[in-house]
Design goal:
Elements lengths: L29 E2 L10 H11 L7 H21 L3 H13 L5 E2 L6 E2 L1 H14 L5 E2 L6 H15 L3 H21 L3 E6 L2 E6 L8 H12 L4 H14 L5 H5 L12 H16 L15 H4 L4 E2 L2 H4 L11 E2 L10 H16 L7 E8 L16 H4 L3 H9 L11 H4 L2 H7 L2 E5 L1 H11 L12 E7 L2 E7 L15 H12 L5 H12 L8 H6 L4
Parallel strand pairs: 1-7, 9-10
Antiparallel strand pairs: 2-3, 4-8, 5-6, 9-11, 11-12
Helix pairs in contact: 1-8, 2-4, 2-5, 2-6, 2-19, 2-20, 3-4, 4-5, 4-10, 5-6, 5-7, 5-10, 6-7, 7-8, 7-10, 8-10, 13-15, 15-17, 19-20
């Protein structure tokens, strides 16, 4: 009989009753038996492909997605400024009072490119409403602020921004496949899903450097040097510490501002002739070792962009919370809709049971008393309660006044989260595939008891999974999300101007005027 997949449990009462242990380091690790073609390094080949990318090579859907990712990332940044904690994240740079050529979005004043990228990158991920690649990692919070900071400094064209965004995203996706650290492993009769103790996504700084480097017109050799410089500027890998800490703080699992800032600095240093390790992905002590990777699979780094276009697997979020919760929340929304059509309201809800994969039963995801936004956006009981209470998804989900609502606590008491073994097995099987970064398909089950009647739903694909045609969010829905997030920060006319600019991004002769619009208040 096949063992039932479940998360291995650690006995640490000071953290939480349930949480995953870090992955063991005594299992086989190393480099897969794949090498670059003769006369090429892995780093050099990846940089050459990124430098050769041009607008004409991009399918229409890829160009459209790039514009929508820019819009969505900016919207998430603006939405974060509606919360006091978001404004705290922005205050550090503005307190320095150093003006520069780059607009601070939704704020007065300007800053230098690296400082602006730092502010915008941190804010872009703060609400956890930003794009997610294959349900496991955010790329745009690091790449897009770096690209747009360089683009405003140089008054780049819209076409340059599109190409730079795609180049950065494609490099990020290839690095994610080459240095996997979200895995599933047998542990006796259990299956452990989690990150390695030393793991993290510091490698994303290389993708940010490629994006900014394309704006600075670096060639393949220049991009290779920029990636080497970015590796030395990147933050420490912090995912393991995140798993082992509770409650979550404003730093979350990584400060994306440090990633974006490192990307801008590395690209600019490379342009100025600063030498860096142009073979950072090759040889002993290569990047995968530096960032706590357990193994290195270089094959994904060797193919040119378009084989496949990984940007097609970017997911857009409807809820400001971890993507791991979205399938369950889609199911909750479905049963609530059926109950309301039957004439029942939230006060009629007697019980709500949500079945999820085992990793979502751990401490961050089951926090029933989130005290700040960073914790709230990972809590399944909290976010499900907000759906029950019909609180519109947006920055207000994470506001202090929402966190303190008595009816939210009352509703959470009616919510029970359990393991759905099929969901754990499905995720584990996908993560076990060689060269796998994240997973495309999840599963959640929801059972609601209201007014003596039962309502059930089972969700696989998630709204916003752009690689599944029936799950794709049309541009109109992403633009509507931008309006909700930006409305309290920008004048209505500025909101519409930004949307219009992103719709026709590839045709803009200059992006600076559109970016200046983001400074209006």
């Amino acid at each position: 009989m096949r063992p039932r997949p479940r998360a291995r449990r650690c006995q640490r009462p000071d953290l939480a009753r349930v949480r995953p242990c870090g992955l063991a380091r005594d299992e086989p690790t190393g480099v897969a038996e794949v090498t670059a073609p003769a006369g090429h390094s892995v780093t050099g080949l990846l940089a050459t492909h990124a430098a050769a990318l041009d607008l004409g090579a991009l399918p229409a859907r890829v160009r459209t997605t790039a514009g929508l990712l820019v819009l969505d990332t900016v919207g998430c940044t603006l939405g974060a400024l509606t919360l006091e904690d978001g404004r705290r994240l922005a205050a550090t740079v503005t307190a320095f009072g150093e003006a520069g050529p780059v607009t601070l979005w939704g704020q007065p004043g300007t800053a230098g490119p690296a400082a602006a990228a730092f502010v915008h990158g941190n804010l872009a991920n703060f609400l956890d409403a930003d794009e997610t690649f294959r349900n496991f990692s955010h790329f745009c919070a690091g790449v897009v602020p770096a690209v747009l900071a360089a683009a405003e400094e140089r008054d780049a064209t819209g076409a340059q921004v599109v190409v730079a965004t795609v180049a950065g995203y494609e490099v990020a996706a290839r690095l994610a496949h080459a240095i996997p650290n979200l895995t599933a492993r047998p542990q006796g009769e259990a299956v452990e899903i989690g990150w390695s103790d030393g793991g993290g996504h510091s490698w994303l700084a290389l993708a940010a450097a490629v994006g900014a480097g394309r704006i600075y017109n670096l060639d393949g050799e220049g991009l290779a040097r920029a990636m080497g410089l970015a590796a030395f500027l990147a933050p420490l890998p912090t995912f393991g510490r995140w798993w082992h800490s509770f409650p979550m703080r404003m730093t979350k699992y990584m400060l994306y501002g440090a990633i974006a800032q490192a990307g801008v600095l590395a690209a600019r240093m490379a342009e100025d002739g600063v030498t860096g390790d142009g073979a950072i992905l090759d040889g002993d002590g290569a990047l995968w070792r530096m960032v706590g990777g357990e193994r290195f699979e270089p094959a994904p780094l060797l193919s040119p962009p378009g084989d496949p276009w990984w940007i097609d697997q970017a997911a857009f979020k409807l809820y400001p919370c971890s993507r791991q919760l979205h399938g369950a929340l889609d199911g909750v929304a479905q049963v609530l809709g059926e109950a309301r059509r039957a004439g029942f309201g939230w006060r009629d809800v007697a019980a709500l049971e949500i079945g999820v994969q085992s990793a979502v039963l751990t401490h961050h995801y089951q926090n029933r008393a989130p005290a700040e936004a960073a914790s709230a956006c990972f809590s399944l009981p909290y976010t499900a309660a907000l759906l029950c209470l019909e609180v519109p998804p947006g920055p207000d989900w994470l506001a202090p006044e929402t966190l303190g609502r008595a009816d939210v606590r009352e509703m959470m008491a009616r919510i029970r989260c359990v393991e759905e073994p099929r969901a754990t097995r499905l995720v584990a099987e996908q993560l076990a595939e060689p060269g796998r970064a994240g997973f495309e398909l999840g599963l959640a089950t929801v059972r609601l008891l209201a007014g003596g009647r039962g309502f059930e739903a089972e969700v696989g694909a998630i709204a916003g999974d752009q690689w599944i045609e029936e799950m794709r969010l049309l541009p109109e829905r992403i633009e509507a999300k931008f309006r909700r997030f930006a409305a309290a920060v920008l004048p209505a006319v500025a909101v519409e101007d930004v949307i219009a600019a992103c719709r026709e991004l590839e045709g803009l002769a200059r992006v600076r005027p559109a970016l200046k619009t983001l400074g209006q208040r």
